[in-house]
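fwd from M.: "can u put these together and see what the complex looks like"

so here's what she sent:
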Amino acid sequence: MDRFVWFIGYEIGEEKIYSGTGIRLYDGDTKTCYENGNVTLTSYRIIWQDASNTSVQICLGLNLIKSTEKQAGGLGKSPKICFTLDDVPVNKDPGPYSRSRYNHVRLSFRNGGDNEFFTRCTKQLQEKKWLAGKLRANQTASAHVQTSLVEKSKVPELRISASGIGGIRRDIEETNRKNEASISNAFQDLSKLMNKAKEMVDLSNTIATKIKEKKGDITDDETVKFKAHLLSLGIPDPVTKETHGNGTHYHMQLAHEICKVLRSEVDDSGGIMLLADAYCRINRARGLELLSPDDLLNACKSLANLTLPLKLREFDSGVLVLQSAIHRDELVIKQTKQLVRVNFYDNMSSQIEVV
Amino acid sequence: MRRRGMGAGALMKKKMQDEKYKQKANEMATQQLEQLSQHLEAFHANLEEFAAKHKQEIRRDPQFRHQFQMMCASIGVDPLASGKGFWSEMLGVGSFYYELGIQAIEVCIATRPVNGGIISIKELRSRLLKTRGKYGQDISIDDIKMSIKKLKLLGTGFSVYGTGDNLIVQSVPSELNMDHTEILEFAQKHKGRVSPSQIMKALSWGRERSVSVLEHLVREEMAWIDTQASPRETWYWFPVFFIEQRRASIQLPDENSQEN
């Protein structure tokens, strides 16, 4: 309520838009003594006048309104409109309240008319006729708004946020606004993004996780899902020709990297993975530092000389696979033989019974 | 109006109030989801643009490169976005074809559960265009063929076959293909005789996949073709199951005693 000022008179160019009766003012969530009043919406302000004592008039500039929200009535409660307000302007004229704990005020419509008022008020807030009316240039006004927003983010919030649905909603809106501003600011150019990279990584994670909670996944497309999975296996410091030169040493280091990254994936797909699959996966994990098929092949060939958990294997048809070292044909044959033996004896015994 | 503490009226009012709260909660949840989706969209568009325009600079800084990749991973954006360039096209060199190859394999792996590792080159192309995003250069069928050709070194498991316009890309060689086993099992249950439509319906496979596996089994001399069973399609017979069928119908214990 400390943003209200005493009404002195109409300004030049101010138009009356709408009037209502039976209005009570709330300072945040607290009832004020300003009840049963007439309210007038103009293109610049909202003016409240005491119906029983018409000389008492206070007004609130529309330029101070940050957002509006309708609050439906219920049993014993009148419908209300809640206005979230900017900070108190520095050179404010005198008004009924010098201080307030709250950043919002509410109008309670005992006699109805709130929908109409809300619609028209929203329209006036969009049209912002007061900006054209005042002598201040547009740039100064927007700069003023920006600096006040920046200051707001530096000063810790000492005021009490409202409780209830309105409060929750306001908090959510505030977070959304901050995130939106963060994103568009960070991506303005490359150096900004590099500065804010950590924050953006966390934010992107949060957004993706929340969407997955609510919707199940970020996309329906199975390729995108798979791509996201592969990219997330990212290697922070891949082996490159710059770091390890060319030749055998390079290929051996690559072999180590491949085993480290792909070992569990190979085990998961039954101990065998097509070399083309491995090529795709390791390159996705490396992100922008791609390996050519040449390099991959040479690295895998060098696996034969190293005691690593993966080996390269070629089938007669020319198919190349990465095979888990513990996966050996002899082992599979042994296991199969075991299974066949068990089943064969089972079958035999049941047939003997039939006869 | 005074609120009453008890009674049917109060219960009704409470119920109405609860309904209103639930409605409000749903409203807010939907709005929140919309907001989140918008943020995701903004992230997506920004990351794609940066990947396309600032590729070299991103690559130069290893720590940032990794962070950029993590962002792409959360949002599902492809960081590879090279242009083709004149010399790339002429000589078939450069990142463009390597990147396309990686993206092509990725699509094949992702769609394998549905198509068994067999995808028409036209479908591959349309999926590639989708995942490469709006800054991705347009790709032709020839580009795809070229990029797969460059993967030849990686073995014959990944190949293109067919003629003319109807090229098929196969990403699972027969050695590693479980589809054959599934059809054999299916044939066994159906008296050794199956048709592609039967398979399509029972296993929810596409036509290409079903026919391809059946034809493969014919080539491996495990199945015979029957073009006269029905005018609409070819039926396939599996001799290996004839003996079982015969034995089942005559109820002989086993072959050895029969031959005597």
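replying to her w this: The CA atoms of residues 3 and 89 of chain A lie 8 Å apart.
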